[in-house]
Amino acid sequence: MSGSDPSANDTVHSEPVQSESVLSESVQLPRTHRRQPEEREQGVQPLAILMQRLQLSAHDLVSASPRQLTHKMVSRAVKGRWLTINSRRQVHEAFCLATGTAPLISELFNY
For residue 12, which of 20, 39, 83, 92 sits 20 to 30 Å off, Cα-Cα? Predict the structure, then answer.
């Protein structure tokens, strides 16, 4: 349009407003949500013992899962690598479907 105001298309850049923090200055929040290496390794999980006892492989859980469960997720779960709650739920669901049992998530993972 020929009658439009050219300044209407200009973006306004302003300095961020400095507000007073609710937290005291001595509190340092972590810059990342990642866990420290020693917090990620949880040791052998009860899931590994149950899978061995029932002679289940990672592939059995992956094929039983209706979701996109990967061999890598199962491998990490068995080894005790820390998983998000959503990943633990997927492994739990696949284990229940593969075995026909319904253990609690806390019976498969000790963290």
Answer: 20
Q: Which of 4, 13, 90 is nearest to 109 (CA)?
A: 90
Residues of the chain short of pLDDT 70, as ranges, are 1-35, 37-38
Q: How far are the Cα atoms of 23, 24, 31, 40 from residue 28, in angstroms, in the given order?
A: 9, 9, 9, 22
Tokens coding 75: 């491998």
- Helix runs in 1-111, H state only: 37-40, 46-53, 58-64, 71-79, 85-99, 105-108
Q: To which residue do tokens 């990943």 refer? A: 87
The residue extents of the domains of the chain are 42-111
The span from the CA of 13 to the CA of 111, in Å, is: 47
Three-state secondary-structure class, residue 21? coil
The pTM is what? 0.67
Task: Tell me the two tokens of residue 7.
Answer: 């300044």
